[in-house]
Design goal:
Length: 349
């Protein structure tokens, strides 16, 4: 591909986790013609984790902001908005929905996206890859910059990078790591557009990570404390948090850590409450220190002897797997889920 002038780049991003990469790219180029986000009147925070109104970011960066009325870009007014814009390339930096074919075709150079998983783009297409990586205890994440097609993460790969997780990384740190890798690759492509011509197709069998819903975030107090702490790190803000309950009141656990290996009460029992409001909960192999939490009743305080409820992690995984297979029976699930799939005969591994 030959180009004799700077590319005009239009960015789609309406979640906070994408803005760090956008900021990094803006520091390296003046070729961005605007940022597209979802209008706050149309944003459902329960359906879009980390939603952000892009206007303040754009004002700070002296960048035009364009607001659409539909996250799926299905409104006629959204298409008319894009018709008025002049751009060569679309970069999808934070948009948790598929991009329609008509928009991809509107850009002469198409659309760029990034996706990854512990097994690369082809081994973990689909939903919530960084959450899954942390939940499953993976130590490495490989991310690709690829050409977006109307399908799910199936376009030609232009560049790839990997990073490693540290023991205490949470989902926010994971997004920091991904934003650095993504921004590096985007800047590399902008500086060397010939990379478009060397993109490689994804050949062979693809596997998918299934969708996670807020109700899939229940704690299982029978698990080891280290595993529960890992789950909390995967689901902390901007996600809905690790969920537990007492009576009809919900609690969200945002930050936890292993405390010791003392097992002296049933799983879920609060054993010690500190003056700070932090508390110890009995788990499968010891005690977990809950350091940051919120309750649906703001007046509730933890008490020794309270029994916090949870849900079997195996049951949660069974529901996720069943839901995926019932909707997308042609999409083979990631091999990382094989231990749970084996427990439910009839699923292809």
């Amino acid at each position: 591909m030959t180009t004799h002038r700077p590319l005009r780049i239009l960015i789609l991003c309406t979640v906070s986790t994408g803005l760090d990469a956008v900021q990094a790219v803006l520091s390296q180029t003046n070729d961005v013609v605007g940022l597209v986000g979802l209008h706050p009147d149309q944003a459902d925070p329960t359906a879009i984790s980390g939603y952000v109104d892009i206007r303040s970011f754009c004002t700070k960066n002296d960048l035009p902001a364009y607001l659409v009325q539909s996250y799926t870009l299905s409104q006629q007014g959204d298409r008319l908005l894009f018709d008025k814009l002049d751009f060569d390339l679309i970069w999808v930096a934070g948009w948790q929905r598929l991009i329609p074919k008509w928009l991809i075709e509107m850009a002469p150079l198409g659309a760029l996206g990034s996706h990854g998983s512990p097994d690369g783009i082809q081994g973990g297409r689909g939903r919530s890859p960084q959450n899954w990586a942390l939940i499953l205890g993976c130590r490495q994440f490989s991310i690709a910059l690829f050409r977006i097609t109307p399908g799910v993460d199936e376009g030609d790969v232009i560049a790839e990078q990997s990073f490693f997780y540290e023991e205490q990384d949470d989902i926010v740190v994971s997004y920091y790591r991904a934003s650095i890798a993504t921004a590096d690759m985007v800047c590399e492509v902008l500086n060397n557009p010939a990379m478009f011509d060397t993109a490689r197709p994804q050949n062979g069998m693809a596997r998918y990570l299934p969708q996670r819903r807020p109700q899939d975030g229940w704690v299982d107090w029978n698990l080891p404390a280290r595993t529960i702490a890992r789950h909390a790190r995967a689901l902390t803000r901007p996600y809905p948090g690790l969920q537990t309950s007492i009576g009809d009141m919900d609690l969200r656990l945002w930050r936890c850590q292993v405390f010791d290996d003392v097992v002296s009460a049933e799983p879920g029992a609060i054993q010690t409450v500190f003056l700070t409001g932090e508390f110890l909960v009995s788990c499968g192999d010891g005690r977990l220190l809950v350091r940051d939490w919120t309750a649906s009743n703001s007046r509730w305080l933890p008490k020794v002897g309270n029994i916090l409820k949870g849900k079997s992690f195996d049951e949660t995984m069974a529901g996720i797997i069943d839901g995926h297979q019932s909707r997308y029976d042609d999409q083979l699930l990631s091999r990382r889920l094989a231990p749970w799939m084996r427990k439910h005969q009839g699923h292809t591994i």
